[in-house]
Amino acid sequence: MDDRLFIFDTTLRDGEQVPGCQLNTVEKIQVAKQLELLGVDVIEAGFPISSPGDFNSVIEISKAVTWPTICALTRAVQKDIDVAVEALQYARHKRIHTGIGTSDMHIKYKFNSNREEIIERGVAAVKYAKRFVEDVEFYAEDAGRTDNEYLARVVEAVIKAGATVVNIPDTTGYCLPDEYGAKIRYLMEHVDGIDRAIISTHCHNDLGMATANTISGILNGARQAEVTINGIGERAGNTSLEEIAMIIKCHSTIPVQTNINTTKIYPTSRMVSSLMNMPVQPNKAVVGRNAFAHSSGIHQDGVLKNVQTYEIMDPKDVGIDDNSIVLTARSGRAALRHRLSVLGIDMDGERLDKVYEAFLRLADQKKEIGDDDILMLAGADRTAGHSIKLKYLQVTSGVGVRPVASIGLDVAGEQFEAAASGNGPVDAAIKALKCIIRRQMTLKEFTIQAISKGSDDVGKVHMQVEYDGQLYYGFGANTDIIAASVEAYIDCINKFRH
Ligand code: KIV
Ligand code: ZN
Question: Which of 108, 153, 277, 432 is buried most, with the most CB atoms less than 10 Å from its CB?
Fold first, then answer.
């Protein structure tokens, strides 16, 4: 019989650390419930001591889900553990994830300490956490660059102190797959009492090896994989859940099974991408737009004769339902509702009416409405509570003329108008906007993304604006790319803290 591989999802903790990807508590609950439907075993809901927002999210996620274990991150510090215990008070199944850096680099430069003291601190943290919860996971930060012999001593000591799971993070994404696998094997063979704990992988993707390293870890004895949806995470991200789940499903030679309902993978991927405003690269394995699109004639011919000639997975197995991907102006409210629910969004009543109206307006402008459009429409009412709203925008631009923009804004119920010229239409529109919102703000990042195909498509704009020493992330989506840019800028301003 195959062993069980536990799936530990850290989208809401390691994934959420990405600048611009922060979610509010309501959005985090939405993601957590979807992760529960997907069948993850553990949800790392946050790092409670890091902010009141994280603390509150752990509380609310604990109340909202039933089956998964809710995990809270801490440093090997008593105060962190106290706060995590409080945040986990409503969780039906709870886990504290505590730990400390174990590589010589971390010991010397981060802690100005020595190997023995680090073991003592790790053991003390596990023992302290054990006073409050049975399930304690220990992480040896930068284990990827930690000497194996010393790492084995750390792991043995924390298991003796009561750790139920020991996490071996390749924090910097440095390890080669063979090297990471050998590290796990070394621990399996040299740690006394290893059978009393589960060894966990936690791999980062800095060199594009996170998935390979995780699989290598599993083949060598790890029985928990720490992953995120779409592989989001700091820098190049973490191991992606969908890749691990599908590798295990496709390869019967890997002797483990997960509890993941793979048909929920695609809706979950779309939901996370949409809520975090983080596009999925088109060629992303398993969930990218092109993952199942065969464009060359030879491939198309083969697939038409027998789909297995070029496809190793059935798109339906990951929840991609080809028949209903495209909606048009003739699609009814029920079709929209169904598509939204396939994408993980349940909507009814007035909210659905509003989205349907916006859908019809968009369908008048473009022939086919895809999933990205629908998610954009469903998310559009997230701006309902914003105090600054775009009322109108008119821009004249072209060759041989200086672009001019006039803009109308509703600022907390008051109407304002302004006009300005610029060296391009976006520049003119933002200058006009700045005539009304007179703050010292600087555009730091500006990405335009056409969603799929056709000149009638909706363009998405991602922006970062610096104000008062802080970076604010904004998003806009519109068939008019200048309007999308101004909407993204306004989205940033609406997030300013004062
Ligand atoms: O990458 C890492 O080392 C981590 C730990 C805090 C678990 O995210
Ligand atoms: Zn990490």
Answer: 432
